[in-house]
């Protein structure tokens, strides 16, 4: 048998060939890039790297400003019509859940409707530039435990420091490694390693600090999650790299070695850097989406306009 | 439009899409990710175009977007062979192909990204480490663990063929 290492390139090549390559328009990309002059959830990232408050006392999610009105798309989620419970959820409850998801995503100018309960169908429309996030609106939030790995620059003779600060570089960008600097100006890359998402059994918002931006998300984990969380805290306490808790990949709570650890009861408390609405929205999307129908096989359709 | 960007998109977008679709396993998600990666690239094109080879920068954004995509949506398994139905399967052994791809899609997203970048894009371990922003040692260990799982899948497939 030829070893997989030798055969894998051909297998991957054949698999890639099975997908038709779309046409990418440089002009459209450039136009979208110009319109999308926003940074996704900078407050959360700032919180993760110790700069909470620098983005404004309210901690408000930055709006996706600058969109035009002519570039909208409509995304339709149509389920297979199979209900686990015999009682379909109320339309208002479903729409309320999706709207919480919209706010938690920081999306603007989104319209949500539910034209049919059987088969379950939700229609959302928004800016074409937001399409990847519009596609996610039917999914619950995922809470993950993250171990950060900070590597020193090649020309540095010092070890990475734990209180390194965000230092700009290409700017805060969703999806790329966050650059941080120490007090000497050395730039470190921070890579996040996340495990499977945790099962949150209950979540709610609590004001933990005075002021409109002092709200935290309190999430209770199931038994398996509590064990993983306790193990994670123990690892963080020993490791040289910090650990974080994230929702959909975005840090909401940070622990670094030497910091007092929270009680290991399976309850995660985020940093109190959210507005009341933000904390409530995150709490809603973290819990099992009781308002949402069991979808079965979902068909997702994207059409222009909306 | 910034000079040189159209040429870059024309020459490299297809390759970026093929990498993305192997990592995320879904054509539409891959298209969105490439679109997002190129938009972010364009916002820094003045700096990126000055690089000797801009592609690693874009590939880095794309790979991290793809890994993050799965962190967000990995509660639903990706359907095997969810293709466009346009191109035929050129694999000489469809069963083996399907078994390997099935296991590949069950791997953790970063491990899958390591294998795709290493064995499809033919990057060196150091280049994979650079693209994903991880240590070379991590690339080695992730690749070894991923290959071991794929090897098991192939062995099981061969066993099934012998007993059939």
UniProtKB/TrEMBL annotation, chain A:
State the organism named in the record: Catenulispora subtropica
Q: Where are the transmembrane segments?
A: 43-66
Q: Output this protein's name.
A: Uncharacterized protein
Q: Which UniProt keywords apply?
A: Membrane, Transmembrane, Transmembrane helix
UniProtKB/TrEMBL annotation, chain B:
Which InterPro entries does the entry link to? Answer: RNA_pol_sigma-70-like (IPR039425), RNA_pol_sigma-70_dom (IPR014284), RNA_pol_sigma-E_actinobac (IPR014325), RNA_pol_sigma70_r2 (IPR007627), RNA_pol_sigma70_r4_t2 (IPR013249), RNA_pol_sigma_r2 (IPR013325), RNA_pol_sigma_r3/r4-like (IPR013324), WH-like_DNA-bd_sf (IPR036388)
Q: Which residues form the RNA polymerase sigma factor 70 region 4 type domain?
A: 98-150
Q: Which residues form the RNA polymerase sigma-70 region domain?
A: 13-75
Provide the alphabetized UniProt keywords. Answer: DNA-binding, Sigma factor, Transcription, Transcription regulation
Would the keyword Transcription regulation turn up in this protein's UniProt record?
A: yes
Family, as annotated? Belongs to the sigma-70 factor family. ECF subfamily.
Protein name stated in the entry: SigE family RNA polymerase sigma factor
| UniProt organism field | Catenulispora subtropica
Q: What is the lineage of its organism?
A: Bacteria, Bacillati, Actinomycetota, Actinomycetes, Catenulisporales
